[in-house]
From TrEMBL:
Family matches, as InterPro entries: HAD-like_SerB, HAD-like_sf, HAD_hydro_SerB1, HAD_sf
GO molecular function, one term: hydrolase activity
Family: Belongs to the HAD-like hydrolase superfamily. SerB family.
Keywords: Hydrolase, Magnesium, Membrane, Metal-binding, Transmembrane, Transmembrane helix
Annotated region (Disordered), positions in chain: 1-22
Recorded superkingdom: Bacteria
Keyword Metal-binding tagged: yes
Annotated TM spans: 258-279
Keyword Metal-binding: yes
Protein name: HAD hydrolase, family IB
Length: 285
């Protein structure tokens, strides 16, 4: 049996030979998606409070980010929703000074993202590092948000969405969007450049949109998969894992937490409760 790391509940099964990438080098890589795979949150939404406190977004925009994050965590994002989120976020950040964004992210990392890193993901990363495997994060989130998380985990190689910068400010334009086939292209490019044996390599993700990347390697693993990926993984004999520590729970936010009035807090709480109910109903369906 192939040793697949700290969690041995199921051996990682190679993808069908015709779907595995062509890299045949000596090195082995472990490719990780970020949101809901390494962290129990969304990197695109996680820093909303920090952005609001620093005057980059309004209270209303902070609330919208919170609701979007809740929806994403409960039901995931389809390809169309991901594109809509990309466009909305790109418009929101137009004109933001890059250094200020970096400062906000750095200041809030310890309180917002670090506690949300799955302990199972840390163990898995440590396992691959001990095996001498190269570690790579591939994320549809902007690189400016992904870089500090990768640094926290000691991962040097990231491939992420690139936002255009002019005169030290974000323009609101996306120059490279790392989603779907773009992730598979990145895996192929890295394999060519570094000599990865993709048939011996690993990939981890929660989303159906990442099937092209997962299918590139011999050991694809669905982590906390959305409904579509769970079905695809089961049909193809892929390993399915559940990361639970920390639990991605959603306590109702207080007015102080997101800086809005009591009426808004009640609305958020109601919508969050509805999201929990809807998610449970879908799971039982």
């Amino acid at each position: 049996m192939t040793d697949t790391g700290p969690d041995h509940s199921a051996a990682a099964s190679p993808a069908s030979p015709q779907r595995v990438g062509e890299g045949t080098g000596e090195r082995v890589a472990a490719f990780f998606d970020l949101d809901k795979t390494i962290i129990a949150t969304s990197s695109a939404y996680a820093f909303g409070r920090g952005f609001m406190d620093n005057g980059l977004i309004t209270r209303q925009e902070a609330l919208e980010l919170y609701l979007s994050k809740t929806s994403y965590m409960f039901s995931g994002h389809s390809s169309a929703k991901m594109d809509a989120t990309r466009d909305r976020m790109a418009a929101m950040v137009k004109g933001w000074p890059v250094e200020q964004v970096r400062d906000v992210v750095a200041d809030t990392m310890a309180s917002v993202v670090t506690p949300a890193i799955y302990s199972e993901a840390r163990e898995l990363i440590d396992y691959h590092r001990a095996q001498g495997h190269d570690l790579v994060i591939l994320s549809a989130s902007a690189s400016i948000l992904v870089e500090p998380i990768a640094a926290e985990l000691g991962i040097e190689t990231i491939v992420a969405t690139q936002a255009e910068v002019k005169d030290g400010k974000l323009t609101g334009e996306i120059t490279h969007y790392l989603k779907g086939d773009a992730k598979a292209d990145a895996v192929r490019r890295l394999a060519d450049e570094r000599g990865y044996d993709l048939a011996r390599s690993y990939a981890y993700s929660d989303s159906l949109t990442d099937v092209p990347m997962l299918a590139m390697v011999g050991h694809p693993v669905a982590v906390n998969p959305d409904r579509g990926l769970r079905k695809h993984a089961a049909a193809n004999g892929w390993d399915i894992r559940s990361f639970k520590n920390p639990e991605p729970l959603f306590p109702s936010p207080g007015a102080k937490e997101i800086g809005i009035g009591a009426g808004m807090v009640a609305s958020v709480a109601a919508l969050t409760a509805f999201g929990v109910w809807l998610a449970q109903r879908r799971k039982s369906a």
